[in-house]
Structure formats: C-alpha cells, structure tokens
Amino acid sequence: MTAVPRPSLDDPKDSWLVYADSLQSAGDPRGELIALNQAVEDGAPSADRDAFLGKHAEAIYGTLTPYRAQVEIDWKWCVPKTLSLLIGPKDKPAAMVEALLASPLATEMQTLRLVARTPSDSDKIDLAPATALLGKGLPPNCTDLELVDDRAQRSRILVSADYSPDTNLVEFGNLDALWAIPHLRKLHMVVADTEQINLGTIDAPALEDFSLLGLRWGQPYGRPTDMATTMAEAKWPKLRRLALRIPETFTYSWPEQYGAYVAVDRYEEENEYYDDYADDDGWREDLDWSAELGNLLNALKDTPIEELSLTSFASAGTLLEALRNHGLPASLRRLDLGTSELSDANVPWMVENAALFDKLEELDLSDTLISDPEPLSVLAPKIVHSEGSGAIYRFSVGME
Prior knowledge:
Layout: H1 13-25, H2 30-41, H3 47-55, H4 57-61, E1 71-76, E2 79-87, H5 93-101, E3 111-116, E4 125-126, H6 128-137, E5 144-149, H7 150-153, E6 157-160, E7 170-171, H8 176-179, E8 186-190, E9 209-213, H9 226-232, E10 241-245, E11 249-252, H10 289-300, E12 307-311, H11 316-326, E13 334-336, H12 347-352, E14 362-368, E15 382-387, E16 394-398
Parallel strand pairs: 2-3, 3-5, 4-7, 5-8, 6-16, 8-9, 9-10, 10-12, 11-16, 12-13, 13-14, 14-15
Antiparallel strand pairs: 1-2
C-alpha cells in the first residue's frame, strides 16, 4: 500500500479528508475507505463499504485475506482501531495470527481481540501457539490485547458434579510471553475457570489495565488460589486499573443449568428427579476474602492504581472486612463492588466504616441486592447504584 504520512486519530476531520484526497490521487484505496467509513459513522448503511472492502481485499487485508470472513474491524477513518479474529475449533490459530502479523492491518491496529468460539460442548481450541507468536511479534502500535472465550462470555455459571470442574474448552497457554511485551498497556481476559489459567510470572513494565473475568474463583474448602498469589507478587509498576470477577462456589443437590458453560448431562431438567430439587437455592460457606486477597490488596498500595473492580462475590461481609483489614490504596479513585450479594444488611457496616471510602470519587454498587442506598449518601464518593440479582456468576456443584 502507498506509504503516505497520515494524521493522528486525534486530528480533526478536515485533516483526514485532505489525507483521503491525497491517497485517492495516489491510487491508494484507503482514500475512498476513509470516505466510506465516515459515511457509515454518519449513519449510512455499511453495504457500500463492505462491497468496497471485498473488491480491494488484497490491498487492504493482504496476507489476512483468506481469513477475511473471520475478521471484524471497528474502523476509524482507515485505521482498524479494534481488530477481532474469530477463531473456531477447526482453525489453526497460530496460522491466523501469523497471517495477521504479516498484513498491512497489523501496522495500524490499536487493539487486537482473539475470540475463541466453541459451538459444541466437545470442541477445544488451543490458543497457546498464537499467544506465543504475539509475545514475539505484536507490533508497537497495538497496545491493547483481549483474549476471549466466547462461550464463557455468554455464560453465567460453571457446573460440575464435583469440586474439580472439567478442563476449559479454550487453552491460553503460559502468559509469560505476553507480560514481557514492552508496549502492552492493556490485557483483558474472559475465561471459564480462572484457576486453570497459567498466569506465569507477572513482570509487565508497561501494563496499566488488567481484567480477568471468569466463572469460578477459588479452591474448595477455602484453600488459597494460584491467581491471588501470583498477582500479589506481580511487578506492574504502571498498573492503574484491575478488574477481577470473583464468583464463589455453591453446592446443590441438583443444580440448575440455565446459562451453563457446559451442561452436565446428569442434571438435565428432563431427568425424573429434577422436580424434587426445584427449590434448591444452594449452599455455600463464606469465603475468607482477607486470607485470599489480603496480600494482593497490600501489594496494590505500591502501584498507581486508580480503579479496582471486584465483582460477583457472594460473601459480602468478609469481602468488606478484607477491605477494612488491609485498606485501600491511597491512589484509588473508583471502586466497583457490583453484581454482588451486597445487601441492605451491609449498609450499616459501610456507614460505620465510612472513612474507608474517603479518598474514593466513585463507589459502584450496580446490580446488587441493596434496595435502599439512601443511607450511603453520607459517604464521600459518588454512589452508583441499581438493584439487581446479585452474584449471578457462580460455580455450581451438584451432589446427587
């Protein structure tokens, strides 16, 4: 493609339109792509742009052209702000990533998403070779990386007949190579069982934002997790945001499976015993969040963290106690405790310990069981609140 200097994404529209004219004069299809993308942004249907991309696929996609049907792009002008590779069980992820890294899109993309799709319960996808390639070859313009198990993203519970869930359908491999990427600013992961994720040793000099969103957090009987230990020992001197979904374990005689990552055959509703356990709300033992997250909370005080998200926990009382016992980082400005079992019963404790939240600017209590947030108005931060269903994400273990 024609190498013509382009404006920055922050430059005004006029600069990009002048740039588009210069590209068109040089016979570069990106010139017309700029105009077509602007038309779509202004509300026009995408059909004309899609047809244009098909006509000029070789010039725009390059070596990625054979996989074009599995590529989704969020365009800004002619820049792929976010590029998603949709990877199925019959694909070769490493070959797809290799083709991407050799394409002209690689030198422009800002965010790369690897989205693993497993239509069948028996499908498996190994992304480890692909993530290893990214560790060696992610271009410096791409600062944000997302690794997504699409089935986990669409699920709300992990179901098992014992306390050791089946192997995740998507394998991400050891993440050591990713932490070492010198320009990686953001890593976002959506997984099934977080305990099966090999975080490796976190030494991430540029990382500012890390998310780990799963359907199960924790070991049986309160044993400490590998994730909390690894993150407590992490070296991420620029970390500004950490988001962890921390679903707990519920034990049922006969677990319901609506929204399950993979349904367990023995617990199908059609089974003759299902109606006998229709009112089973599950049993759980409070998790000692001080023991689990204490070292991590202490370690975060040595980072410039501004936003901490701990969501979908059920042991609300012990989570709040953990925050009080270990304190919040002085730099923290936003705390998200949403989609959790926080309820009206926890509100007096929060008021009594108002000083804990004094340095926050915002406290997010969205989708909790709190029905009356008015008493929390005495707290220093802005309260973001909505009443919801509580901790909808969970690990459900059946005992029958």
